Amino acid sequence: MKATFDLTLTVPADLLALSNSPEVSRKLITHSSSSKNQSAARVEVRFARTPPMSTYLLAFVIGRFDQPLKTVDENGINIRVYTPPGRRHEGSFSLGIANKTLTHFGKLFGTNYPLSKIDLVSLPDFPSVAMENWGLVLFHEPSLLASKDTPEALRAFVATTVIHELAHQWFGNLVSPAWWSDLWLNEGFATWLSYNELDAIRPGLIDSRSWFVSTELLSAMSDDALEASHPVEADVHRPEDTAEVFDSISYGKGAALVGMLHDWLGRENFFAGLRNYIRRHRFGNAATSDLWKALQETLNDRPAGEPSIAEVMHDWTTRKSFPVIFASIKTDESGCNLRLRQSRYRLPGADRLHDRWLWRIPIVIATQDGDVIRRVMTRSRMTIQLPNCGWAMLNPNATGFYRTSYPRSLMTELLREAVRGGIRPSGRLLLLDDVFAMHAADRVWAEDPLHAVHVLRHDSSLQVWTNMLNHLYEMGGAVPMSDTKAFNNWQRYVHDLCLTRLRARNSSGFERVRATCLDYAGDRNVENWAVKAFPRWLHGTRPETISPDLWSVVCRIAAGGSSGGIGVSHFWQLLSVLNRTQSIARREEIIGCLGAFEDKKRPEVEKRLISLALGPELQASEVLCLVDGLSSRSVWRLLTRHWTAIARRFEGPYMLKRLINGLAFRSTSGIRRVRRFFRSHSAVGVQDAVRRQIERIRLAAERVGKDRVEMRVLVNRVLVRLLNLSKFPNEMISGLSTNEIDDILNEPDNLPESAIDREEEDLLEALFKKIPDEEAELLELEQLVSEIEDTAASKSVTKATEYYVGKLQSFMENHPSVQRDLATSTPREIDSLLRYFYGSLRKRNGEYFAPATLICIRAALYRHFMSTRRINILTDDAFYASNTTLKSMGRIFIARGGRARHFQSIEPFRALHARQRGTRAMSTCSVPASCLVTFAAALALLSAAFSIQISEAVTSIVLNGNAVLLTGAPSLSGRSPLNVTYDRDAQMISLNFADPVPPGIWELYASFTARINTRLSGVFRVASPPGSPPHLDSTIIATYFQPTDARKAFPCWDEPAMKATFDLTLTVPADLLALSNSPEVSRKVITHSSSSKNQSAARVEVRFARTPPMSTYLLAFVIGRFDQPLKTVDENGINIRVYTPPGRRHEGSFSLGIANKTLTHFGKLFGTNYPLSKIDLVSLPDFPSVAMENWGLLAGIERHTRGTSCAFVATTVIHELAHQWFGNLVSPAWWSDLWLNEGFATWLSYNELDAIRPGLIDSRSWFVSTELLLSAMSDDALEASHPVEADVHRPEDTAEVFDSISYGKGAALVGMLHDWLGRENFFAGLRNYIHRHRFGNAATSDLWKALQETLNDRPAGEPSIAEVMHDWTTRKSFPVIFASIETDESGCTLRLRQSRYRLPGAIAFT
């Protein structure tokens, strides 16, 4: 929504006023009575009209500033830099950067900057680093000002910030995103350009490529590896969603994807495409697809068969996560071949649902001979013949957004090449980070990254060293302090590593590397030196002796040193200096040092730090600097004790996110504390940051637990030997002298880079050959996995198992080193060796691998390796292998947790919707009796009429509403409310009346607006499947209201216990089909088409019959084009219809037959016939879950009815039809009883399959493998599980209970009941239950009561059903029974003992 803006400001006459465009007039409107009081005078300042622009870019500034620094670029653009009074000289650096940037970008983009001026204004406080308002760029002061004493790193930061904001003048201002989901087109381009073009604008300032990788790329990869990440093209539907996408994904990953495109297409093609893009969309808006189109038009010389830009980039922008490429070199008679295999990079504990994702990856390969090979990897595997044998490295300049894993032999060669200088710093940095990332993903042992650290310990790159030390800090967290020997050895290892760097002195002007090493060294003499240097730094008496890069390091070491450091009196001196300091950069440096004094444990210090954080003395941005210097424990105390004050001070999400990211706990208790706190304390725009931080804490806690034993062994055995090889063993142990430190810091020395000693190299090779280099062998193992996956469907399980296990045994015989390792290794080492075999099988289990085949192969592996060495692996389902006669069931999609439903998260309930077990969900006194809803196909202006029963006088009627806006005044039987209030967080609309509304039946009428979305929730739009006739409108509109999305479509009460009848009217195009829960009763033409060929212009009003009383989430409709339905009538006269996409009518006959038999069978089984007159089954091209049980209108994703997927289709149809009784006719009283829906529907879909479609599959085995063993039991063994009767207090909690516990465990409990009570008693009880609660609601206790009433012949003393089942439904977890048979003179006795099944590390007291 762009517009031009004419701005007029009335301001004090003595203040400066600036806006986007130049000032055109200034008129005095009030005079001052005193010449000394100019602020009393007022002037009216009018600015020129802006070009068309988005509203968020409008800006103005009013205040006092120094006379501006100014210049005019070669295109006549006026450039001005405004600074605080007395700081004018600090703006010259930015002015020079801005001047060169505008000229450079104008040439680069083929479009000059379109305004006549641009102002850069420094502000003492600002909610972000800077803001790109068109023609008036605002900066937080340290982001714009730089003096001759400014550290080199900060000058680089200022330069990249100015370039970033000026890049936005084209990307974001001249061409704006069509919607916030395309934000990356702004931030990704501006971020990438700020680094990539820095050398052209200010040569030699920094190594911009390494800086980009360290600052943006690796940060984005770290965040994108989390489950809480999101695609670059993010979903943005609510105002608060916009704040969530201003993160490292839009900035860092977006920039990395721009760089990958630039490297793939080449600079000339890339910028030619950008010029097309800018010229075509200038002063307008663009989406991601517009960029792909503009870039594609410039490509004429691409290799044949190469995919289009849109095809390649679609994978990267519409998915979260990224790939890892496993690379190895295989030599045979044909030469050297580089073998590549891609997989999704996944951290431990992450969802495996997307493990089979593939990316189209533009790859760059550097070879030992200097050749560069470019390809696009489009498949999971790729083989490239190398021109000559030798090493080969992927992503040598870190231009691709993927990780690479190498076998140890190739990794060692690449590290040697890095030491020789054959790999650029950015490539060395990514090489190092990749090996640490593989360790984080449990792909390599801790020895591998430490090997890389040791080889690169003389590296001259600041980014390499910073990355190295950060990773060592994280890794050191796993070294237990209780093991004094291990802890001291680790400390000494890091200490000596840092001192090696300090002694090298191999790079002039390398103070920042040395500063980093000093900070990490932990040396007593370094601390003493810092204590002596601190007064010089504090008072500036000898600033020339200490590099500006070392100022803050000196303070932190001196204040927080283990030897006592400086006294608390210096804390108060720092505060005194702070009060006299004007420079924001210098102030922030001092403030950052104040946090180091928290270790003094003095109450007055802690109290003063809190008062600084909460009081008015510091700007909001300065508070962040203070918090950055505090420990996680102190940040946590500050947040939890003063949340209200903190949230009020940091109104925007940017600063709150910084605070949340400071919660770097490493324990499971930290997860619980953070999660518990933010459930009741939140703010707009930080939910994703909280989820990410919780996931980071979980990963850190798990890593510490996993690595504790390994790190103890590694530190005590390996690192000690490395330490003994140091060149300066005696000096290293004693540390550095104070004079030596001064020499290192003040005397540049250009000594040549050291090479790895031959002795050290021999030791490293010996150490890392202790475990054979089995990467190539593991690739062969993985080939077996793929072969099994591809062919097992055509073999019986027995033959498949024998065949492939035989191949595995043959493989072992041909590789003695692997066989030998299996015989002598620990269980963990064996598990690592079999990762590509056993692990890959296990991963595939959740997706396309036949469960029976999987179980048998795993069991056979177990038997084979048990014969090799008695170890405890694969024991969980080994017993399935004995005498099995199961048939292979081929490639079946196994939905983990049954028919998994995916729901979006929504804002929490307030007190009005607080739900405790046994209480009503709503505290209002109004209950809906009936509802009449009218929708138009465009959802422009709609209406709803409710008949509600009020039981006692009320002054407010509260409905649920989410993104629904009432239009006009609602009416309650002629009464109008005093006002209408919206609570967007609680998703409620309150109608507030001046006088109490007395009890009785009232008619409530409301008109409202809502919108159709594409997020597959509420009322949504989907496209018809590929292959539909091109002349037909491809739009389908459908609904998905479960569990709480009806409120997105119309104001309502959408809790399950609030039942009502519904009268629905739809206004739709005359040529489209409209379906709803009940049959159509009338169709009236309301607008005619002016052309017989354009029937879509005509509109009809379709009215449907009144529904029976039902929960609001079951209301549904579908509008679209479908084939003529397949239909039949069952023996009770129910009309059954199946609607399929055009041209696919024949594929619905199987489902029609299943539905016909199911309705009849269930009517007899439950003693209650299906209560509606019709039921429709509708196939949709996209849907948020497998299917949805809307009463009378089942909707779901298309599934083929050929081959082995018939079983899946059959169980799905039976499942949804079972819901017509369990869920629809009898609904749960609250979402905590959801298992009464899903548990019964899941169990019935398997248990009754043979009665409906005999011989289709072995339904019992299928149930056990799909729902019981491989889903419910696996998940219920976790500490993160929950009881079947789950606590549901807030809307987002409802999504949590649609999982394998409600589906699989619920179904298993139903089956256990059925087996215990017997089929006759069980179904007699169900008939009681359904008859008693039909058209109403029930709780779990109602089921126990109905079942108990049918039992007359149970053994004396047997506990009641409620007593038995209470343990199963109100607790998580399950028991294990230990069974043994003992024989004595009295005969054989079966002895049983039960205990809770508990995985290692689980809480024992439960």
Automatic annotation (TrEMBL):
Residues 1-57, 944-1114 form the Aminopeptidase N-like N-terminal domain. Residues 391-698 form the ERAP1-like C-terminal domain. It comes from the Eukaryota. One of its GO terms (molecular function) is peptide binding. Binds 1 zinc ion per subunit. GO terms for cellular component: cytoplasm; extracellular space; membrane. The record marks Y251 as: Transition state stabilizer. Its cofactor is Zn(2+). The keyword Transferase does not apply. The active site is at E165 (proton acceptor). Residues 764-791 form a coiled coil. It holds the Pfam family Peptidase_M1_N. Keywords: Aminopeptidase, Coiled coil, Hydrolase, Metal-binding, Metalloprotease, Protease, Zinc. Residues 93-316, 1150-1368 form the Peptidase M1 membrane alanine aminopeptidase domain. GO terms for biological process: peptide catabolic process; proteolysis. InterPro entries: Aminopeptidase_N-like_N (IPR045357), Aminopeptidase_N-like_N_sf (IPR042097), ERAP1-like_C_dom (IPR024571), M1_APN-typ (IPR034016), Peptidase_M1 (IPR001930), Peptidase_M1_aminopeptidases (IPR050344), Peptidase_M1_dom (IPR014782), Peptidase_M4/M1_CTD_sf (IPR027268). Zn(2+) binds at H164, H168, E187. Belongs to the peptidase M1 family. This is Aminopeptidase. The lineage of its organism: Eukaryota, Metazoa, Spiralia, Lophotrochozoa, Platyhelminthes.
